[in-house]
Amino acid sequence: MQRVFITGVGMISSIGRNVNETFSSLKALNSGISELTLLETIHKNLILAAEIKLTDEELFQLAGIKPQKGFTRTTLLGIIAAKEAVQCSRLNDISNRRVGLISATSVGGMDKTEKVYFNLLNGKSDFIYASTHDCADSTIKIAEVLKIRGHISTTSTACSASANSIMVGMRMVQNGLLDKVIVGGTDSLTKFTLNGFNSLMILSKEKCKPFDDQRDGISLGEGAGYLVLESEEVVLKEMKNILCELKGYGNACDAYHQTATSPEGDGPYLAMNNALLSSNLSNKDIDYINAHGTGTTNNDLSECKAMERLFDCKIPPFSSTKGYTGHCLGASGAIEAVISSLAITNKIIFPNLNFKHKMSEVDFSPTLELKGNVEIKNVLSNSFGFGGNNTTLILSRC
Amino acid sequence: MKFFINGVGLISPQQNTFDETFLNNISGIENKYYQNKELNYKDYLDPLVYRRLSRLIKTNLVSAKMCLKDSLINNPDAIIVGTGLGCIEDTENFLIGMLENNEALLSPTQFMQSTHNTISSQIAILLKCHGYNNTFTHRSFSFEHALLDGCLLLKENRHFNILIGGTDEITEKLYTIIGNIGLTKNNNRYKQIAPGEGSIFFLLSNNQSIKSNAVVRGISTYHKLKGDNLIVESFILEALEQAKINNSEIDLMICGNTGTPRFDKIYSSIADKIFPGATIIPYKYLCGDYFTASAFALALAINIIKYQRIPDGLGSFANNKIINNIIIYNHDKEIDSSLIIVGKC
Q: How far is it, in rounded angstroms, from Cα A324 to Cα A387?
């Protein structure tokens, strides 16, 4: 099977409009979680979120597109991050049919649907937004802007959606169906998801505190992350600059409950273990874990239990970066893969924010200080979704 | 590529017994749109389980169970679902509740069940299946990409029995919106096929068994961009070449005609040019028009290959000729084109 390399990355979130700004914010330990100012909701003054403080008009400008109807916020974020990834990798033959795009989102164009739904239902106006509701719409618009003519597809597995789009892209290259593929995901904040998580009573009143004993829930975020994957063959032929290798993946289902993770973290354990197997690595080879770490009581404990099982109590340094970016749902897997690649190329471990108290159930804590000059060979990045859709990616230094 | 279909589970607007009597009595459209023939879910699911579930989830749990029963497999190694719009009913209910009650008094259950991956994960929970689990949602490619992903898994040789489904649901509100934006048009000149729904599962395997019905030999999808010159003809020839099949070896073409002459024209012109010897049958008048209708077409193709007969009224075929290969050709307004090539075992 072909080896698969990451040759470009792009992202936008509440901590930066591009990868450089993101890197500066991460090094400065700046959190993007703040009061909501753009999303219209009754929870505005009650719940914090990692909102990108740019209006849709400003996002159009950043995306290099004339403001027009028919573009959701999710699509605009996706275009901005995917364009950056393509520029970063200097992809020159993007319209070749051997180049693909596999994107992910959790609720697609819901940010517009929830504004115009009754107009659509009553046959009044805003008809253009009936076709922007589905998950494929943002993918298709990104393909149009980038002029991608090969395989295009969309995955949607809630909070692991973009980890799965990365995995599917990797497998398509490994199996020789594509030479190059742009993979990632995009999700904007919506009233729908904010109220959904609120009805489940798993939103934090403060900035989320992953892995803290007194953690009380998620801080939602928005953003997009994309990576350019290329086969070993084209990387050698075109003498491409490589950021790191996408070494392996593990996909497993917790098969326990629609929204809760099993107490011993069966699905997370299997996903991580499968990722090690597919990478031909042992648990001793992992130098850093970018954890899923949402800040809910349930997820963080299950994830710790799974880490305990997999690493035999010798847990490598780990942190959740959701204290910076918030939980960007369908985009989080890709955003965290970009952050993991930054950790590898810059030899830095970004610490876990807002942690004060060690969890009573386990004997270990996340990394709490910025660590530079760390030889990071292999990073394990976790993404766990509703329904137990668990996916782990392993990124490695070349 | 040659992977075996070892089981089928089908809930659609047609009868759900998938034997040689399939489509002997074709059900026409009973309402404004095509609706699944409902089953008594209590016969298949624990009452404590089914009470909390939406119609789409129930239908899919039952269809998945029917497929596994048919294939004599208790637990698959992986579950992959393709769905164009996912759990529409729960999404509508949560959305309307939120808008009407000004973000108060919301049901977490509706939100939990609104995500696209609820279908594949609920099946995993029911079966306690910890294997690979994924959901594709890309308009009329949703099912094809789920099927393609299943083929890749088998090729990678770490999974052996994959449960793959294609499903979408139609609701009154969705039908209203589709009508409002002008996608359902009936006028004097032609009658367009109404929206529909279905929950259809297949057990794809790299092992031939006594239950093997047919083999999947190729899957291709092509998204046309503005100003793109690639013509459908070369896309089809390329797919045949990849599947190592000559155009003359295709005995039957199953087409996604929607009743709109402008868009249906290409099916007959492709048939004339590439498959002059093949029998051509449309299928959407049996299940309605929806993003994952190609799963119904695949079930139809498998039934035809297995029983070597075209159900009465669908089309004619020389009596003694063997049906070896079938191509399923769909396109969504000529923008998204897809092909599935199925053959005899």
A: 25
Q: Is B273 on the interface with A (CB under 8 A)?
A: no
CB atoms within 10 A of CB B229: 6
CATH architecture, domain A248-396: 3-Layer(aba) Sandwich (3.40)
Please, are residues A162 and A329 in contact by the beta-carbon 8 Å criterion? Answer: no
ipTM of the complex: 0.98
Provide the b/e sequence for A371-382 (b: ≥16 CB within 10 Å).
Answer: beeeebebbbbb
Please, what sign has the CA dihedral across residues A306, A308, A310, A311?
positive
Q: What is the mean pLDDT of chain B?
A: 93
For the stretch B8-58, pLDDT in tens is 999 999 998 899 999 988 998 888 999 999 888 888 988 887 788 899 999
How close B230 gets to chain A, by Cα (Å)?
A: 10
Going by the DSSP 8-state scheme, the letter that residue B333 receives in this structure is T
Handedness of CA B62, B68, B72, B76 (dihedral sign): negative
Using the Cβ of A53 and the Cβ atoms of chain B, whether some distance falls under 8 Å is answered with no
Tell me the C-alpha to C-alpha distance, in Å, between residue B165 and each of A74, A325, B10, B53, B142.
Answer: 27, 35, 10, 18, 10
Each residue of B167-204: pLDDT tens digit? 999 999 999 999 988 766 565 567 889 999 999 999 99
Q: Which fold has domain A4-238?
A: Peroxisomal Thiolase; Chain A, domain 1 (3.40.47)
Is residue A388 over pLDDT 90?
Answer: yes
- Rounded distance between C-alpha atoms, residue A149 and residue B97, angstroms: 40
Same fold, A4-238 and A248-396: yes
As a three-state string, the secondary structure of B71-121 is HCCCCCCEEEEECCCCCHHHHHHHHHHHHHCCCCCCCHHHHHCCCCCHHHH
Task: Give strand ranges (E) for chain A.
Answer: 4-13, 34-35, 48-49, 99-104, 152-155, 180-187, 223-231, 244-253, 288-290, 318-319, 378-385, 389-396
Asked whether the beta carbons of residue B117 and residue A270 sit closer than 8 angstroms, the reply is no
pLDDT tens by residue, A171-219: 999 999 999 999 999 999 999 999 999 999 999 999 999 999 999 999 9
* Start-to-end CA span in chain A (Å): 17
Give the pLDDT confidence of B294-332 residue by residue, as tens digits.
999 999 999 999 999 998 878 777 667 899 999 999 999
Residue range A35-57: mean pLDDT, rounded: 96
Query: Percent of chain A scored above 70 by pLDDT?
Result: 100
Determine how many CB atoms are found less than 10 A away from the CB of residue B128.
Answer: 10
Q: At what angle do helices A73-89 and A110-121 cross, to 10 degrees?
A: 150
Q: Which residues of A participate in catalysis according to the annotation?
A: 159, 292, 327
In chain A, where the domains are located: 4-238, 248-396
How far is A354 from A211, CA to CA, in rounded Å? Answer: 9
For residue B337, the model assigns a pLDDT of 95
Q: How far is B40 from chain A (nearest CA, A)?
A: 24
**Interface contact B95, partner A, CB < 8 A:** yes
Q: Is A147 left (phi over 0), alpha (psi -120 to 50) or beta?
A: left
Beta-strand relationship, B325-332 and B132-136: unpaired
Q: Is A196 on the interface with B (CB under 8 A)?
A: yes
pTM for this structure? Answer: 0.98
